[in-house]
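One thing: could you explain this record?
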Amino acid sequence: MRAAVLREAGAPLTIEDVTLLPPRAGEVVVEIEAAGVCHSDYHYMTGDISCPLPAVLGHEGAGTVVEVSPDSTGRISVGDRVALMWRPRCGQCRYCLEGNPVLCQLGRVQAATGGLLDGTSRLRIGEETAHHFLGVSCFAERVVVPERSVVGVPADVPASIAAIAGCAVITGVGAVTNAIGACAGESLLIIGAGGVGLSAVMGAQLAGANPIIVVDMDDAKLELARRLGATHTINARTEDTLSRVAEVAPDGVAWAIEAIGRPQTIRTAFSALQPGGTVVAVGLARVGEDLGVPINELVQRQKKLVGSLYGSSNPLLDIPRILDLYRSGRLPLDELLGATYPLDAVNEAYTELARGSVGRSIIVP
């Protein structure tokens, strides 16, 4: 099969012939129909974050199951349409038992080894072992993934929607519905209007937050944010963010979501809070990047700063809920879709992402 391979940080992805070994116990083969162009992959491509190389990238995907190992649980069958999850759950570790499965120990096994749940790979390039990326590797025609890493998708949901639901949407919507919770009538600031930030806008609108203030440096992204539910937008390239926020919420905002992963924008979100307010940080940064916050402001105004991975979600429950909301017209996920690229154009897709492409672009292997 053909797949996009990262061989060296800072180098373009190469389209190579990759051999996919048969699935082992508890694994399935999925033919990929759509894969999202996510900034998380870009962090590994640039070397901000490292992973075992060579690796087939892509972690936001959807497709159809074409093979199931003989000892499967029966939950997934050949012909099922599925979305992929880069955070499986074992159901037995402390984090799963506490109701926080996105921190499951299995995720760390996949990330550290570049393998699947047993730490080994099903990918070969000639005699060379290639690595899985976050247990998914969906910039490829097919993938072998653990049965635990797929969730069923209704027949009337397009593959592109199912793909983005499995990462961008669950991260952004989940930051509101899970990390924040009830916020109807409360002010909410979102910094960054990429795929995750725009998903947070939809989550905020769904939750009834008001006002919903979105900050970015691109007018086209801000226009899309307004269509998705933003009540106010700020172009940080031409406007002072804190001054404009103060015009809308003079006492500060109750909630802020930072969807970029930069120290300066997290500090801006923190400064924009009202006393007792909370920043939810969802964007990743270069490994070793530090954040400083004013201690007295933290203590005297009782502000809070929390992280949220994968929308602090329970993906096996939250992805079906997101897809049901889409099907009922309450989450307009079609608006989130950007350009579509063939696998051969994956580097072009990431060049455009770095330039600030609007919406979530899709690779169709």
User: Anything to note?
Assistant: The chain has a mean pLDDT of 96. The longest strand covers residues 27-36. The longest helix spans residues 159-180.
